[in-house]
Amino acid sequence: xxxxxxxxxxxxxxxxxxxxxxxxxxxxxxxxxxxxxxxxxxxxxxxxxxxxxxxxxxxxxxxxxxxxxxxxxxxxxxxxxxxxxxxxxxxxxxxxxxxxxxxxxxxxxxxxxxxxxxxxxxxxxxxxxxxxxxxxxxxxxxxxxxxxxxxxxxxxxxxxxxxxxxxxxxx
Length: 171
Hints:
Elements: H1 11-18, H2 33-36, H3 46-63, H4 75-79, E1 84-88, E2 95-99, H5 105-119, E3 125-127, E4 136-138, H6 151-167
Antiparallel strand pairs: 1-2, 3-4
């Protein structure tokens, strides 16, 4: 899968959450307590975390210009459950966005997305074009046009399929 550097700042949380499911094998790290621990969720939060993950994947696919791989609840609706607060430091006037309830996963994701939207990094968090992958990666290319999580695996397979299709050879 992804051989790229992780997304910057808080977007690394979003990327990590999306990548808890390996679509090709079906392995879901959220199935175990150890896999849920980095996200601060318990077994009772599992359904909501998976719903959030798939809505985030849909957004990452959209960033890359691809339709969602399945129907999901709109990310906007999920993020509405996590009100954000702006706190202003009276000493220097700096402002910080923070979740009203920082212990929830959706609140931390909302802050990450808001920060990424503000600095322009959110649209660079994409999902791989390969239908059997959809791994989240951060597009650091100057033109922001990368299509695969890894040129060594997904990109190479896609290019080989395209080559074979042009040549009339079977996959």
